[in-house]
Amino acid sequence: MQDEPKPAEILAAVAAFLREEVQPHLKGNTAFQLRVAINALELVRRECGITVEQGAHENALLAKVLAMEGETMTLTGELARRIAARQIDPFAPDVAACLWTITEAKLEVDQPTYGGLTRARAKLAVAEKEMDR
Amino acid sequence: MTSTSTDNLCIPIEDSALARIAGALVAGGGEVRNLRRLSGGASQETWAFELVAAADGLTHRLILRRAPGGTFQHSTAAGLEIEAAIIRTMAANGIPVPEVRHVLDPDDGLGRGFVTSHVDGETIARRVLRDATFTAVRPALPALFGQVLAGIHGSPTAGLPELRLTCLGATLDLLRNEVRALSTPRPVFEVAIRWLEDHVLPDVPPVLVHGDFRLGNLIIADDGIAAVLDWELVHLGDPMEDLAWLCATPWRFGNVDQPVAGLGAREDLFAAYEAAGGTVDRARVRWWDVASALRWGVNCAAMTPLFRDGTDPSVERAMIARRASENEIDLLRLIYLGD
């Protein structure tokens, strides 16, 4: 089905309505639970915003390190299995890069402002700079 | 997850049931007033109330901790009676803890649990990290944590109730099983398992480990640590587990660049720990750093089936499950960048 406005746009409007019109009337545990619910809507909104290209990029990265093709979930399962079975080296540069990319992509949906993500990116930038030297 | 709601498990307590144990709490008994459920604690209920002593009219502020619904106990929990016994031992050893006033007996009709004195101070991490009340004490806290942890770890283990023994190998086996039982594949968790396997260290003589020593489980006053709470995960094991857990990224509560509870540098914690008689083994701390991030990640990820099967269909439960990816990025940082 394709029509407008898009799901992400509608979700943004619902989240804004709850935050601006409903939140001020609540207190205590209900206010807390509403904040959690608004965060949930925002998470789904971000997930709706993932483009076909982004999904294909992630799939291609996995397919490349595994030298096989398949659904992203199947490939993710295969990567986990091979790491556990010690059939792939997670420290090989392309495997490491793949793991970082798929994890950062999850964070972009789940918690883009997570402090641990900021710190990880800052430390990674430092490490890469040192490697260039 | 200090804010986790467990209202679905909450069975109200009658004032009259508490009144029955009033005589055990204060000589001559008294009147129960202002009984209320405190927020927080997914695996234990915490209730606050006041007892006005019949003898002298003095008001005693008290806290009841009990199993959810009166009886539920998590598999890794030590058990409330053991928790109470440990708290009493810690008090005798000079560790700041609330005074245990009464351990519930089945005849009390209140389930399993214990009553302690109320301790003034703050447990909410964000307030400790940000409120002006704690500005002066904040820089001193990492060292105070080190001092108290050295005291806990240095406690004689002879005479303690029987406790779970958690060595590195058993921890690794448990984590591996939990990762494999998750409802979705997680390659980063498998990398962590592999790293832990490759870096496992020989066991050390086990000491008393608190098991959940972090902001949220500590009452902080404007002049220091008023009480160490939440002894439900107390066990025997490697003392470095507590040092690593205190520094785990989620327990920095947003202040990610301050490793010790979002408050300061590891060096302050370690120096005070050693000054108070402990010995820091950096390689072991690092092993537990990775194990801690994986532990918390597995806990988050394991929420998904509880959400799906209706055990806890709350939005909050779903959102906690979605925090597993936070632990994945933390694990990548720890393992690939040694941070």
UniProtKB/TrEMBL annotation, chain A:
Matches recorded under InterPro entries: DUF6285
The organism's taxonomic lineage, starting at the top: Bacteria, Pseudomonadati, Pseudomonadota, Alphaproteobacteria, Sphingomonadales
Domain DUF6285, first and last residues per copy: 24-114
The name this protein goes by in its record: DUF6285 domain-containing protein
Highest taxon, organism lineage: Bacteria
